Amino acid sequence: MNEEQRKSTSINILAERDKKEKAKNRDFEHVYQPPSLREARKRGKAEVQYNNDFQINERYRNMGRGRTFMIKTYGCQMNAHDTEVMAGILSALGYEPTSDVNAADVILINTCAIRENAENKVFSEIGNLKHLKRERPEVLLGVCGCMSQEESVVNKILKSFQNVDMIFGTHNIHRLPEILEEAYLSKAMVVEVWSKEGDVIENLPKVREGNIKAWVNIMYGCDKFCTYCIVPFTRGKERSRKPEDIIQEVRELAREGYQEVTLLGQNVNSYGKDIKGLNYGLGDLLADISKIDIPRVRFTTSHPWDFTDRMIEVIAEGGNIVPHIHLPVQSGNNAVLKIMGRKYTRESYLDLVSRIKAQIPDVVLTTDIIVGYPNESEDQFRETLTLYDEVGFEHAYTYIYSQRDGTPAAKMKDNVPQDVKKDRLQRLNRKVAAYSGEAMKPYEGEVVSVLCEGTSKKDDEVLAGYTEKNKLVNFRAPRSAIGKIVDVRIDEAHQFSLNGTYLGEHSRAVVSQ
Ligand code: 5AD
Ligand code: SF4
């Protein structure tokens, strides 16, 4: 029996086991929709539909009255933003937020599937919550996000985590009211995971975290299918939002006083390509957004394969698009890049970097790197180290390759022992730290503009924020500085942060760093 058959059989066995429950509850059939990675891999030709009429059914409006919710978020900014949407829906249903897990009536765990250790954290979190259901059986516990798109995860939860009441997928978030209702009525676990993406839904309610920086989705899904990556399976095919809807949202955020927006997508460079006849890409979108009066605009994440000259041109104009580009390289060796399915070479990546540097001389480049890919040799790994030197990244997120079921890389034999992978990660991380530290030194004595976000994590008396180039700055200042762009003279550079003296609100005469 192959892996695929084994999985579908185990789902059937579980479904069989739950037949009695189904008989008790007619609706169970309706809400038992488990995921399939095989289905999720398909890319249909059907054009994306846009839904601008989303409304919460009136009959759910009082569902949350007198009840509280808490959402625990793992993973990337996309998940953070999905949490804002779920918080928006729950608030619209009358639920109040709480940060006390013991007081929450609905607990949602928004999960990340990108690496095995991210998944393990979630399973231990669900395990830790078992006592809650014993003490307060009326609490509803839901698992959502990328992990719920994997059938192996759904099986494991069905089998071992009876304390979970609902599992719903990344394409089902807008159905949260219906899913909650089912969970209140049903004794069985409610599983609703669509493997195929649905429409782009525009007017979902949101409760944003804070009023200084905002996430703005510009597209959903990914069609790149890098061989190690689970995201194209968990997030569906690429679907761009319409330019006018994005621009409208950014304008609204500017009016509300937000200081920074980050345009989000798994690969934002593909923006617009899926909309027939649009002929409008990320470069055009950045150009339009640069005309909006909002101080800072970031975008993430860019794939080096389709980073266009138009994008470089717009960033080089130096308006509100910050000169920081996160450009995941993953490896510095051509053979590894090839089996990763990255569609560029070391040479073409370096060529892109030199074009970017030539046109944006003050650009900051950061990256993502995976070490210990199946069969990566010592020499191949060293090419990643030399590429790091050649580019001089100011920071990098580094990972040991993690096998993800259902991805092409999961079928590759791997001859690299785990301790070799760990050693490579440590060697790479030493380089990352050295470059990050070096990049900080020139700031000593300089004045930088900092978007002050609040108090520092370590000291409540100290305020903290980021420069345009994403450097963390700590300084003492009146609380009134929070939410503003302020000038700070840097006194001391550390490896990953800067300490400075507050000079006052940012004056435009100071060249920002
Ligand atoms: N193993 C390790 N790292 C991964 N990433 C994505 N998938 C995997 C995996 N299976 C990393 C890549 C990507 C970042 C978001 O996570 O570096 O750019
Ligand atoms: Fe994953 Fe590659 Fe898509 Fe990024 S571009 S989300 S690494 S498949």
Automatic annotation (TrEMBL):
<feature type="binding site">
    <location>
        <position position="146"/>
    </location>
    <ligand>
        <name>[4Fe-4S] cluster 1</name>
    </ligand>
</feature>
<keyword id="KW-0819">tRNA processing</keyword>
<dbReference type="InterPro" id="IPR006638">
    <property type="entry name" value="Elp3/MiaA/NifB-like_rSAM"/>
</dbReference>
<feature type="binding site">
    <location>
        <position position="222"/>
    </location>
    <ligand>
        <name>[4Fe-4S] cluster 2</name>
    </ligand>
</feature>
<dbReference type="GO" id="GO:0035597">
    <property type="term" value="F:tRNA-2-methylthio-N(6)-dimethylallyladenosine(37) synthase activity"/>
</dbReference>
<dbReference type="Pfam" id="PF00919">
    <property type="entry name" value="UPF0004"/>
</dbReference>
<comment type="subunit">
    <text>Monomer.</text>
</comment>
<dbReference type="Pfam" id="PF01938">
    <property type="entry name" value="TRAM"/>
</dbReference>
<feature type="binding site">
    <location>
        <position position="226"/>
    </location>
    <ligand>
        <name>[4Fe-4S] cluster 2</name>
    </ligand>
</feature>
<feature type="binding site">
    <location>
        <position position="112"/>
    </location>
    <ligand>
        <name>[4Fe-4S] cluster 1</name>
    </ligand>
</feature>
<feature type="binding site">
    <location>
        <position position="229"/>
    </location>
    <ligand>
        <name>[4Fe-4S] cluster 2</name>
    </ligand>
</feature>
<dbReference type="InterPro" id="IPR038135">
    <property type="entry name" value="Methylthiotransferase_N_sf"/>
</dbReference>
<keyword id="KW-0808">Transferase</keyword>
<comment type="function">
    <text>Catalyzes the methylthiolation of N6-(dimethylallyl)adenosine (i(6)A), leading to the formation of 2-methylthio-N6-(dimethylallyl)adenosine (ms(2)i(6)A) at position 37 in tRNAs that read codons beginning with uridine.</text>
</comment>
<dbReference type="InterPro" id="IPR058240">
    <property type="entry name" value="rSAM_sf"/>
</dbReference>
<protein>
    <recommendedName>
        <fullName>tRNA-2-methylthio-N(6)-dimethylallyladenosine synthase</fullName>
        <ecNumber>2.8.4.3</ecNumber>
    </recommendedName>
</protein>
<keyword id="KW-0479">Metal-binding</keyword>
<feature type="binding site">
    <location>
        <position position="76"/>
    </location>
    <ligand>
        <name>[4Fe-4S] cluster 1</name>
    </ligand>
</feature>
<feature type="region of interest" description="Disordered">
    <location>
        <begin position="1"/>
        <end position="28"/>
    </location>
</feature>
<feature type="domain" description="TRAM">
    <location>
        <begin position="441"/>
        <end position="504"/>
    </location>
</feature>
<dbReference type="InterPro" id="IPR002792">
    <property type="entry name" value="TRAM_dom"/>
</dbReference>
<keyword id="KW-0963">Cytoplasm</keyword>
<keyword id="KW-0004">4Fe-4S</keyword>
<feature type="compositionally biased region" description="Basic and acidic residues">
    <location>
        <begin position="15"/>
        <end position="28"/>
    </location>
</feature>
<dbReference type="Pfam" id="PF04055">
    <property type="entry name" value="Radical_SAM"/>
</dbReference>
<dbReference type="InterPro" id="IPR013848">
    <property type="entry name" value="Methylthiotransferase_N"/>
</dbReference>
<keyword id="KW-0408">Iron</keyword>
<dbReference type="InterPro" id="IPR007197">
    <property type="entry name" value="rSAM"/>
</dbReference>
<dbReference type="InterPro" id="IPR006463">
    <property type="entry name" value="MiaB_methiolase"/>
</dbReference>
<keyword id="KW-0949">S-adenosyl-L-methionine</keyword>
<comment type="similarity">
    <text>Belongs to the methylthiotransferase family. MiaB subfamily.</text>
</comment>
<dbReference type="InterPro" id="IPR023404">
    <property type="entry name" value="rSAM_horseshoe"/>
</dbReference>
<dbReference type="InterPro" id="IPR020612">
    <property type="entry name" value="Methylthiotransferase_CS"/>
</dbReference>
<keyword id="KW-0411">Iron-sulfur</keyword>
<dbReference type="InterPro" id="IPR005839">
    <property type="entry name" value="Methylthiotransferase"/>
</dbReference>
<feature type="domain" description="Radical SAM core">
    <location>
        <begin position="208"/>
        <end position="438"/>
    </location>
</feature>
<feature type="domain" description="MTTase N-terminal">
    <location>
        <begin position="67"/>
        <end position="185"/>
    </location>
</feature>
